[in-house]
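tokens incoming
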């Protein structure tokens, strides 16, 4: 009887190339050479009768067939991993989870949460990528990603972590020089620190609530920040102007007197953070444990699963 799955080594090489981003990085991870990895990919493509990877001198990218095969192969290997862990570890949750998070959440929420998670699940290894770039979960080999904003319908699945409250702040040195605004109209006369959203190139509006009315206000200023929204907080702390950010980022700075809250009568708005994953992927026990832990620890408003987009 012929062996049906004698090509699994080639499949593992394919998965490693995608996750590591290059033939050379995959060869280091698997303890072999780039030429061996290249031949493995070629054998797998010949077996399937389809090209999986587009290879140039500068980069690798997945074809449509490659994306489909990657997703299904990764799910199959995850099932094998889960079965082995259950037998070897007596059901203890173990394994690796690759998680992508933006700088806001990655620096100001996750450190404490992951420290608690590590105590509860010592056999789970979390590989955390912190970036303001929205990663491609399938192509880049991430299991989960934390995203900001409303998540319209798409091919991803999301679970709400929290609604992060917003507040307006400035440094004492700025207020000593320019005074404090007493109303929204006063902000027009102040140096504001806008953030330009990478996805649209537009200035992110500041969100306020005046009684029952929700207001989206466009900040203007001579200094604008792109790519990393935390830059507005750093500039505000240096006395360059006023910024709006999340209370969980600003809390310590306010308590220490490095920043001062402004216009508290207009607070009350928030932006949501969610954790997302591809719907066709078989979540490993480690991934599901991390999702449940973060949602509970961040005091999510509910456990409803909703469609999510890669915004």
């Amino acid at each position: 009887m012929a062996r049906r799955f004698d090509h699994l080594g080639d499949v593992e090489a394919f998965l490693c190339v995608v996750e590591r981003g290059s033939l050379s990085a995959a060869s280091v991870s698997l303890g072999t050479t780039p030429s061996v990895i290249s031949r493995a990919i070629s054998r797998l493509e010949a077996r399937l009768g389809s090209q999986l990877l587009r290879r140039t001198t500068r980069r690798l990218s997945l074809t449509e067939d490659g994306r489909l095969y990657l997703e299904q192969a990764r799910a199959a290997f995850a099932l094998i991993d889960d079965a082995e862990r259950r037998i070897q570890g007596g059901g203890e949750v173990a394994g690796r989870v690759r998680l992508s998070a933006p700088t806001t959440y990655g620096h100001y929420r996750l450190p404490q949460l992951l420290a608690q998670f590590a105590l509860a699940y010592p056999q789970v290894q979390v590989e955390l990528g912190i970036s303001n770039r929205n990663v491609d979960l399938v192509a880049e080999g991430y299991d989960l990603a934390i995203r900001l904003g409303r998540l319209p319908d798409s091919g991803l699945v999301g679970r709400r972590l929290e609604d992060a409250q917003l507040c307006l702040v400035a440094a004492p040195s700025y207020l000593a020089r320019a005074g404090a605004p007493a109303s929204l109209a006063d902000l027009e006369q102040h140096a504001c620190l806008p953030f330009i959203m990478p996805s649209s190139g537009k200035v992110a509006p500041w969100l306020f609530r005046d009684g029952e009315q929700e207001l989206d206000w466009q900040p203007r200023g001579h200094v604008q920040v792109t790519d990393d929204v935390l830059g507005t907080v750093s500039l505000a702390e240096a006395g360059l102007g006023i910024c709006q950010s999340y209370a969980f980022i600003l809390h310590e700075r306010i308590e220490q007197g490095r920043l001062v809250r402004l216009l508290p009568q207009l607070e009350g708005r928030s932006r949501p953070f969610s954790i997302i994953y591809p719907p066709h992927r078989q979540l490993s026990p480690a991934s599901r444990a991390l999702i449940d832990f973060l949602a509970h620890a961040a005091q999510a408003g509910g456990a409803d699963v909703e469609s999510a987009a890669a915004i």
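note: Residues 75-162+272-308 form a domain with the D-Maltodextrin-Binding Protein; domain 2 fold (CATH 3.40.190.10).
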